[in-house]
Specification:
This protein is of the alpha/beta class and 376 residues long. The chain has two domains: 4-20 and 283-375, Alpha-Beta Complex (Aspartate Aminotransferase, domain 1), CATH 3.90.1150; 32-280, 3-Layer(aba) Sandwich (Aspartate Aminotransferase, domain 2), CATH 3.40.640.10. 35% of the residues lie in helices and 14% in strands. Helix 3 packs across helix 8 and helix 9 runs parallel beside helix 11 (360-375). The two termini are 35 Å apart.
Length: 376
């Protein structure tokens, strides 16, 4: 992933294209593809394959726990971050007068569950200034009625990176609120320090180079009672097949386990387990050391072009994403795509994502093509 030889071996599809769109879709490594094939071989065993599925799930929980700084018992898996945040909303059992804080750099999955007409709480918006979220703007939104603060460690919109321990201290000093952190745009790309987070979620098809169909949920055991989703199901229940199950209420298992209303999507479990295993062999610290200078170089050069850069330039606020606005973004995107250069374009915004399998040549090729398209 970090050398020309390993890149060609592990990501042969990148030999002939410039792929800078991992924030939307990661490119799986061979171990992930083999894991999917292994799932198929195990699945055709029928019920005899179940113990093999469970072994993969056990291993995935251990790996995810190491990523999150938790124990395997504090890890669960559901289908996606949208499901996880809706389960979180159910767990909080909000009432009129309660308040939730969201922010305008967040992905819809982190904000919209709290803004539905059926949500009794009031959603307050922490708004960014110059592409960054500032704690002094959050403090006035916090108070005794604040139940939850939702944030992404790295913004999907412009790549702004929060510092979770510092954010947690602000939330704890000014409210009784719980802090939920979406690490989808960080997991697998930057070393994590999630101290102070009460709920951690991540999709599995982006920077960890896995597949769709998974969301890694982490809930510290001391917060288990606060995050117990009162949902129907069976995998999430303490005793779903008890003799008197039709005569008394079902009781959810506490904490992360309550977010698994059905058994794990084992195909995704195999793939994500392999993806995290691959990243362990490479090392996220090594990925950051390789890719961060490419991000800084791209941002520096981009600031010389006639575009509106919306990613803050502060080093400690950078991750893998750089974004900018342009009134002819669609035309620029088409020009880049015609040269087999892949970035994201949405509503006038172009987003570039730089991972461990990207190179200085990728970045320079993008800059040259972008300058040409702007001059055309």
């Amino acid at each position: 992933m970090l050398t020309p030889q390993s890149r060609l071996q592990d990501f042969p599809s990148l030999a002939t294209r410039t792929y800078l769109n991992t924030a939307a879709e990661g490119i799986p490594s061979p171990p992930v593809l083999e894991a999917l094939a292994q799932y198929g071989r195990d699945k055709i065993l029928g019920m005899d394959g179940r113990r093999l599925h469970e072994a993969q799930w056990h291993e995935l929980r251990q790996r995810a726990a190491r990523c999150y700084g938790l124990t395997p018992e504090e890890i669960a898996c559901c289908s996606c971050t949208s499901e996880a945040m809706n389960l979180a909303a159910a767990a909080l059992q909000l009432r009129p007068g309660d308040e939730v804080v969201v922010n305008d750099l967040d992905f819809p999955a982190g904000a919209t569950p709290w803004m539905q007409p059926t949500c009794p709480a009031t959603a307050r918006v922490w708004r960014a200034r110059q592409g960054a979220l500032h704690s002094e703007d959050l403090i006035p939104l916090l108070g005794p009625r604040t139940r939850f603060v939702a944030a992404s460690l790295v913004s999907f919109y412009n790549g702004f990176r929060l510092q979770v321990p510092a954010l947690a201290r602000v939330v704890q000093q000014h409210s009784p609120a719980l802090l939920g952190v979406d690490v989808t745009q960080a997991l697998g790309r930057v070393p994590l320090d999630l101290n102070g987070a009460d709920l951690i979620v991540s999709s599995t098809h982006k920077w960890i180079l896995g597949t769709h169909g998974g969301c890694l949920v982490g809930i510290p055991s001391q917060r288990a009672s606060a995050w117990t989703a009162p949902m129907g199901g069976w995998f999430n229940l303490q005793d779903p097949f008890r003799a008197d199950r039709f005569d008394s209420p079902a009781v959810s298992r506490p904490g992360a386990a309550s977010f698994m209303v059905g058994m794990p999507a084992y195909g995704a479990v195999y793939a994500v387990n392999a993806a995290l295993g691959y990243l362990e062999t490479v090392g996220v610290t090594a990925i950051a050391a390789h890719a961060d200078p490419l991000v800084r170089h791209f941002l520096t050069e981009l600031q010389q072009l006639p575009v509106d850069v919306i990613t803050p330039a502060e080093t400690d606020a950078l991750a893998g994403i750089v974004a900018f606005l342009h009134p002819q973004a669609e035309r620029l995107h088409a020009a880049l795509h015609a040269q087999d250069i892949h970035v994201m374009c949405h509503a006038g915004r172009l987003r570039v994502a730089i991972h461990g399998y990207n190179t200085a040549a990728d970045v320079d090729r993008l800059l040259t093509a972008l300058a040409g398209a702007l001059a055309a």
